[in-house]
What we know:
The complex is a heterodimer of chains A (480) and B (100). Chain A has 480 residues and is of the alpha/beta class. Chain A is built from 17 helices and eleven strands. In chain A, strands 1-3-2-4-6-5-10-11-9-7-8 form an eleven-stranded mixed sheet, sandwiched between helices. In chain A, strand 2, helix 5 (111-118) and strand 3 (122-127) form a beta-alpha-beta unit. Chain B is 33% helix and 4% strand. In chain B, strands 1-2 form a two-stranded antiparallel sheet. Chains A and B meet through helix 12, helix 13 and helix 14 of A and helix 1 and helix 2 of B. Chain B: Heterotrimer of A, B and C subunits.
Amino acid sequence: MARLNELNLIDALEGLKTGRFTSTELVTACYEQIEQFDPVVKAFVTFTKERALEQAKEADDLIQKEGGKAFEKKPLLGIPYACKDNFSTTGIETTASSNILKGYFPPYESTVTTRVNEAGGIMLGKTNMDAFAHGSSTETSDFFKTLNPWDISRVPGGSSGGSAVAVASDMCIFALGSETAGSIRGPAAWCGVTGMKPTYGRVSRYGVIAMASSTDSPGPLTKTVDDAAYVLEIIAGKDPFDATTSPKSVPEYSGFIKDFDLKGFKIGRPRSYFEIDLEDEVREIVESAVKKYEELGAEIVDMDLLDPKYSIAVYTILQRSEVSSNLARLDGIRYGQNREAFGMEARKRMMLGAYTLSAGYYDAYYSKAQKVRTLIIEDFNEAYKKVDLVIGPTMPSIALKLGESDNSPMFGELMDVLAEPSAIAGLPGISINAGFSRGMPVGVQLIGQQLTEGNVMGVAKVFQQNTDFHLNRPVIKSSE
Amino acid sequence: MSELIITKEQVKRIAHLCKLQLTEAELEKFSQMFTQTLAVIDVLNELDTSDVPETYQVTGLGNVFQEDVEQKGTLTQEEVLKNAKNKKRGLIVTKGVFDR
């Protein structure tokens, strides 16, 4: 029998509902795993054990009193989760892994964690990330580096690296992350878990420490697509505190993908996504995933999309511009430390952003980038007249070795090249494990039109129903 | 297109705009990094955008209003001030802005 912490969300809920085990046992199992392996992979920056165990006790009492009925009002009752440190959590230190926010205890709670907590979810702790989400390796955390559980000489990807590692290492049942361009899908791919980046505006940004406000999208990192659908259903939806959230009602994703049928589904295979500099084995694994879909009844359509190199440039300008504006508010007066505490990466991004927004350069950079963004969106719109979804590699390589990115000022942007076009256009995308290269997981991503999360997850689920890559777990070896 | 170079002087000015203090070595480093990054960004000039409008946000939503009712759940003064280091009589103390 699987140890409790190894359960996926759907199975953990079933166990709690049927009284096979208690929330206290489940939470305790997660902490045992954390205490054994977190000193090696360092996924967490803050723990909330005492509070979590109290909440588990309360959950157990409620389950005892109301039985299965308790889950109707609280669909995540008693489920332990890990939370990226850029979600504001009332009274719990929230730093976005930055020194400048060290000692900051938010007086309010993000909408996403509010919804998860009201649904009965139990937070185990806050996870490490690239400081302010500025990066794709979790190496730019101001505190420490998180290591990849599949090979601790490698990075987990980022910026939601701590959350991806917590899921991959079975330290939690699911985790929350956020993506601006690649920060959910990238670490999910490199750690071999499921990472769902929703449509921009599908999930509220309220209380999430801002990176680039026009693309920031919170979402779940999970053990299966079913789990992602279940969590997304809870966190998605209109929020009066975030005017960019969609007023459209949230579908019942779990039900929608239950018996998902691929027949008649057209999956586009953009040539430009396979022509970039991919590792050979990554290409082979993603091609075999494409073939698998063909076998399973989908129609594969070779197609053209704009070269993703334009997205690197657009994304770099937009993101740095928005960062310079968002980080201007950190003055150390109302909260946090003074601006001298900013790390190298934040300084770099803020300054280039201030430059691209400054008088005389605005038209050449910021305005130009927003125009090319229009072209990228139109390009996708044309594509979705012919296909239902787009498939491609999530990352061009397997997880890099620690330190490999040190001398590349645009490392993150280059690594996230295959996530950037869809992020710029606000499209939903999922990364699932499609195989292994040199013992490291390789992700394949599926990208849909805005607000078609159901299709994206449905198609991803069919893959997991017919393969077992997502069931593999790393054997964590401590360093000698 | 000739290579665009961000000089140390320019970096100094940007740092000032961002209220950041840089060492001489950092000025040098950022000058090189920014020059490198702008060279990559330059690829956008391959695309003709003369008739293309900008997209500032992708939701398609416009004029999102809320009902004009009393907002519940605002923070108390105590909560708002909790994280400020320097406060006096329920206010945050800052450096003078007008009288310098």
